[in-house]
Amino acid sequence: MRSPALSLLAAAAMLAPGAARGASTDSAALAAQEARLAAIAYRLTTGSAHWCPDTVPQPGWLLSDARRFDQRDRASAAATYGTTGDGPFIAALAPDTPAARAGLVRGATIAAINGQPVPTLGTGPTMRIDAIVVMLDALEPTAAMTVTDGAGAVHPIDPTAGCASSFRIERSGPQAAANGKLVRLTLGLARSIADDQEMAAVVAHELAHNILRHRERLADDRSIDRVRQTELEADRLSVWLMADAGYDPAAAIRFWNRHKKPLVRAASHPPRKERIAAIDAEIAAMRTARAADPAARPLELRGAFLF
Ligand SMILES: [Zn+2]
Description:
This protein is of the alpha+beta class. It has twelve helices and eleven strands. The chain has helices spanning 4-20, 22-47, 74-81, 98-101, 127-137, 187-192, 196-211, 214-217, 224-244, 251-258, 272-292, 299-305; strands at 55-58, 61-64, 89-93, 110-113, 116-117, 145-149, 154-157, 160-163, 166-170, 176-178, 182-186.
């Protein structure tokens, strides 16, 4: 049995790191999950671009901004990311992507795209990131472009076309959400998913909501039946997105078998077992269809859902 003094020392040792550097621990944890999400998002948006009515240049980065952090946490966050100066910066860079090949690095600030300065219209925490997304959306998806970093260096980029969505890890809010343009996961949810394939399954479901324009379609009817229908549609399309991006679609089943609590506590969302059964059935249907035609894409997914 340990002496009370030793137990106290052990307890103090366990508490000390969090207490002493809570903010920097937080930004390091955030950066680690952003790195995973950057790689998954790039692979999903570019690997399944043929499912998307709108494609945009996907450089392979996740962006952040000092303004996303409390004033007192900004210095430690800047140290975590290796960013200097004031401006939106690259929080994560997936390996072997257009931005990485162009020599951009984590922490680089983005001052201009194609010589156009990133506008600073307001002081909101993500306004400069959103401005960059708008600038990219206006470009041809595979047209050569340049990024000017905070030091004035100009990086030519040959972007890859990918589905029109951007991605973010948040420290609060709903565990996973999609608003038509942006896919968000909380830090807590991301940290609870150790397996990248399972994280990709969650991201693919949210990306499917954006591809299927569910936010728009629910604008005039948020009835329980309608919401349940969009959830099942997103689960079904996510199976195909996963497969076409080279992931195992059954990772969604593994996620739901392990993650027993619903991501959204709402009667409108299908029960876990119903979702698992629907995903299982879709995987079987996909295997049958692709055995006959390796490029098969069912009309009710491409047609009724998408257009
Ligand atoms: Zn959903």
